[in-house]
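As noted in the main text, all predictions were made from sequence alone. Below is one such record, for Antibiotic biosynthesis monooxygenase.
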Amino acid sequence: MKAYMTKGTVDFLVKLSKKHALDIYIMNNNEGGLAYYEDAKKSIFTTGKDYEIITQNGEMQAEGFVVMNNIPVTDDARAVFEDRFKARRSDVDSMPGFQAFRFLRPLKGNHYVVLTQWNSASDFDNWKNSETFQKAHQNQEVKKPAYYADRPFTTSYQMYVEEENS
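Prediction:
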């Protein structure tokens, strides 16, 4: 299964999603909109990013809060990074407010994405402040691992819910 993302204005992305018979999730933040969908076929987006879903848990929802950890990995360290990540035990799915998890491998480029979706931003904050989070991240080095091509960064989005006209 593959995952596809593209950026644009929310209005443009909503129009695009209405043209296709797919579950396209529109989300936004203060930088603009992002469309995300999963499918086995080729992307419908003319620009954007394509990923292979390596591991997943839960189902994406039309409402919620999404956090994406963007991790640039050197080409020669991709296998090591994936093995280490897959070997990590995570109980994120047992946390209140958890909706979905995706570990995404880029089909082009070197930015992996670890996507989690929550009912709300406060559910995500509760997880980050939990003992479960501390256990899952206790063995992380203080300095960045050698397989990072650059500094990882996080982006967060609120799912866009179109208001119905009455």
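The helical segments are 10-19, 78-87, 121-128, 131-136. The domain at 2-159 is CATH 3.30.70.100 (Alpha-Beta Plaits). These features were considered when defining construct boundaries for the mutagenesis experiments described in Section 2.9.
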